Hints:
The chain is an all-alpha fold. It has one domain (3-236). The chain contains twelve helices and two strands; from the N terminus they run αααααααααααββα.
Amino acid sequence: xxxxxxxxxxxxxxxxxxxxxxxxxxxxxxxxxxxxxxxxxxxxxxxxxxxxxxxxxxxxxxxxxxxxxxxxxxxxxxxxxxxxxxxxxxxxxxxxxxxxxxxxxxxxxxxxxxxxxxxxxxxxxxxxxxxxxxxxxxxxxxxxxxxxxxxxxxxxxxxxxxxxxxxxxxxxxxxxxxxxxxxxxxxxxxxxxxxxxxxxxxxxxxxxxxxxxxxxxxxxxxxxxxxxxxxxxxxxxxxxxxxxxxxxxxxxxxxxxxxxxxxxxxxxxxxxxxxxxxxxxxxxxxxxxxxxxxxxxxxxxxxxxxxxxxxxxxxxxxxxx
Length: 321
């Protein structure tokens, strides 16, 4: 593989990993607070739809992003009420949200645009455009450094830079702030946090709000940056892949970035090199397209027993009288 192919592959890896990274960090906040969130898929899907519709109707992509985050937060609050207030089964609640988002986006989208659930193509200020960093053109011909800076670092949309900037911010919040300490404690031992005078319910709802924001950014990126419209079921199981990456990363933000980049690399390979010739035979495109999902199964089968989740994840908290 020459330098140009390598840069192209890594560039595609970064673009494709953004959705997974944001969703993985969203699941990190939710599960660190003790809430299993299978509904990442649904929140991303509804956010992608609302962001595309609002961006198309208003002509402003940032209004679309805000609307997408709002829709995702609304779904997160439904999950919170079901699992925190009424102490319902968190997995069933998440799956129900996924089905709800799948149905709503198709029905409402078809009612508005009569395109089978899809939205019209976004153009102009209604979608994100690549950002050229300073001196990208001037450094393009410099050996090694030039292609990396101009072809790999420069030329991404705003949400790509925001997503990777969020990673150290999440690490700092989780491990260097009082909020992060309390959040991790709620996921490990909510009774002790409650005894200390901190509301477990409030902390878990705050975590779900952050989860909703991050899923909103992920969904908005799908429909306004990676694509230029909303398509039916366009999340394509990425919420479940993000959960697998979260397990693989052992619920740590920096490791989550590495895990999602690995998934992004596999998806990039399947897109750029559909038929891989290994000499004796050709690996078919169907296999390369299935690589991210195969890795998901392998991770869940091989790492779920060794990964150590927060002790109280998935357990509804009942305040002692």
